[in-house]
Amino acid sequence: MGYLRTYFSTSRLQIGKDLIHPKHRGVKQGDPMSPWLFNLALDQILEGQEEYAITIGAIVLNQMAYADDLILFASSQEEMQKRIERLTIGLGRLGLELNARKCCVLSIRGDKKRKFSFVDTDVSISVDGTRLPVVTAVSEFRYLGVQFNWKGVARTPLDLEKLLVRLNRAALKPQQKLIVLKKFLLPRLQHQLTFGRLHKGELVKGDKAVRRVVRRWLRLPADCPNSAIHTPARFGGLGVNSLETLYSTLKESRLTQLSYGDEEDAAIASNPAVRGLMSYKFRGSVMSSREGLVEDLHRRLDTRGLQGYEKVPAVNSWLDHAPTNLAGHDFQEAIRVRLGCMGTPSRLSRGGRSVDTICKCGSNARMSLPHIAQACSIVSGLRIKRHNNVVLYVAQILKEKKYDVIMEPRLQTERGLRKPDLVILAKKEIIVLDVQIRPDSVVCTLDACNREKIAKYNQPYVLDAIRDRFGHGLPIKVIALTYNWRGAAAQQSYQDCITNKLLRWRHFGPISRMILRDTARMLWAYWHAPADGATRPTASAEVLMDCAE
């Protein structure tokens, strides 16, 4: 106790050149010790008042306290006045006092004969001679940030529109607005969603307002599915919480925790009315569960290629940690490529519109985003550049780690020329790393493509050529870095690169963003290319079939 007395009486706070002296009253704001000291003091005052408790079923209540926000219960006006007088005396001993301007009285009486309850406004409770205001049947009061009336929690508006208008007018890049929405604006509503009372219609209206501004920021078309916005980023969406989903999850989580609390909490959880709320979900709504959002996203034509995105969550790091020098336009394009909603003739022909969907490369294939990303000969140069950009990025990281890196060595083998992207000379081994960007096929998974690439170079004649070129006696390991054009990575690639300490978790996100950016540039180049692309070499029939929608 002597330490605490010295700590509070002699400590000073300096702001700039000004030295602030405490007034020796109350506890320090923001000090981690302050809540403990305040609760210890308040517990002494509230002890010994069990005789004023009231019983509701198996629940016994005499008071509810959260720091200095206190609710007292009593069965009569006289008992309440005694409790307040006793509380005032206890607070006075500690140098504290009740603020009558922030107190109120709610008196609820029951008529057993007519079986109804009513608010009794003819009560008079005072604090040090000051009469406290009385809650009527139509008035409301606020406790712990939640609006109450005499029946319980009152319905209060979210006021989400005002917050969205302020954010929309802010001079921020699209990615910055998206981060503020996800990390600050929507979490600001969690307390009200957890403890407040909201109608489903208001939550639906709020979700529509959120989707409206997100579509405007990212230039998403109107037919981009709602699930693409609300699905978590690890499954391929944008990770913007749906108010319906958040409301159900927070309510269910809070009520379920009562079952694992102390005896008083267990008594509350055993109440049939409370148990009925533990599965708090809106019926018939896709937005009311994460599973429904993911299922809806992965069954859509434009976004079904996002299946498997959750296997490597690291590729999503650029969504929430975009570099400061990233242009807003590049971020918008990357998002639209990822969601497959870029403007192509194949997509624009939906709804019965008359649009020529045949690609001008002369392959007689439909001009769709998968075709441009993987097969169209008009942008084959940019496709090679997309691959080389990833190779250069990985090579730069490895050189910073002091590895000896050889790029595209020409290896003459008995079955022809082989050119792996990177050969890494470590102290105790040789690592062959080859990069590939594959289609988003749901038939041939990324892990299967990764195994095919490893099998291509993990052949005796290739390994012998590497030993002859770079040294005998060292073990050789073959690794493939496999992505698809949507920016998803193969799980085995991620594990191999992390295990062998070639790449770190933070490197997979920039690679994904780089692929999406270069794919968007390929589409831009296609629209600005001449219409005589038929004279250029076309892709093979197998590639065209693999890239068809």
UniProtKB/TrEMBL annotation:
Domain Reverse transcriptase: 1-123
Tree of life domain: Eukaryota
Record-linked PROSITE patterns: RT_POL
InterPro entries in the record: DNA/RNA_pol_sf, Rev_trsase/Diguanyl_cyclase, RT_dom
Database matches in Pfam families: RVT_1
SUPFAM superfamilies associated with the record: DNA/RNA polymerases (SSF56672)
Name the UniProt record assigns to this protein: Reverse transcriptase domain-containing protein
Organism: Acanthosepion pharaonis
